[in-house]
What we know:
Blueprint: H1 3-90, H2 92-108, H3 118-123
Amino acid sequence: GGAAPVAMDSASVVRDLLRSRIDESNRLQSQLNDAVGRLAELSIAVEEKEFELKTLRMSLDAEQKRSGMYEEELRKMQQLYQHMLQAAASHAPLRRHTSAQRLNAAAALPSSGSVASDSDLEEG
């Protein structure tokens, strides 16, 4: 008699409980799938950034090598310049002589008051 409605109630309670558990399980599964998808996207992004970083490192290495070559070039040019200065210093009397010649040549030019001819301009 009276046991049948209670049994029906408990069956519907169990059914409702199972349905809500299944719904929750589906919701969690969906969240898990979303998380796995995001993880895959992040993994790809990380790989892209690692590649970018590797590329930048290679570029930096190349720049440092180039910089090293420029520094070496500069050092050689400075050495050459020093040698030229030393060579010029050892020929200093000759240089003074030429500048004295230049001064004499400048003194020989007509003064600013007179009109210079074409030949005077060519000599200067």
